[in-house]
Specification:
Blueprint lengths: L8 H10 L3 E6 L2 E5 L5 E5 L8 H11 L9
Antiparallel strand pairs: 1-2, 2-3
Length: 72
């Protein structure tokens, strides 16, 4: 897997929404997204902070997003 870019929660949420994920609920600072196929992913939402690489990798795995799609 190529090196992951450093992106914020806002940026990954934008990518998820373009791929058909909708916000289902929120538990504290964690936003839970689901798509029409039933795939679910959780994004810790702290506005301007960049996501930890392991957290980003988990979101990518859950949403089945290719690392190349994260390029801006």
């Amino acid at each position: 897997m190529p090196r992951l870019p450093r992106i914020t929660a806002k940026q990954i949420i934008s990518i998820l929404e373009k791929r058909g994920f909708k916000l289902v609920r929120q538990s504290g600072s964690h936003k839970i997204f689901r798509n029409s196929e039933g795939k679910r992913t959780t994004v810790p939402f702290h506005d301007s902070k960049t996501l930890h690489p392991k957290t980003l990798k988990s979101i990518i795995k859950d949403a089945e997003i290719e690392a190349e799609e994260l390029k801006f």
